[in-house]
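Example 3.2
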Amino acid sequence: MKKIEAVIRPNKLEEVEKALAEMGVSGITISQVLGWGRQKGSTTEIYRGKEFKTRLLNKIKLETVVPEEDSQKVKELIMKIAGTGNVGDGVIWISPVEELTRIRTGEQEK
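Structure, written as tokens:
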């Protein structure tokens, strides 16, 4: 099994979520996060009519665990839908999962 974590633009979440569900991904976890990457997050924002610079950008972190054989398909799907070709599209990383245990049933997957 593989854990896929993707940090994407907030406006791409709905489309990515729908495509993953259609692909058969059985569950996802979504978090609102702040951060910066290679571009160092330098951007100008307007808050209450005042302009200011910020380094931390709003992003969405999507997490899911999938069978190893599906991990590349899921990664490619996220890249296709979340990608705009512009700086700040996000990042995906894939990690091995040794064990998954469902709390309610105690069912384990390895």
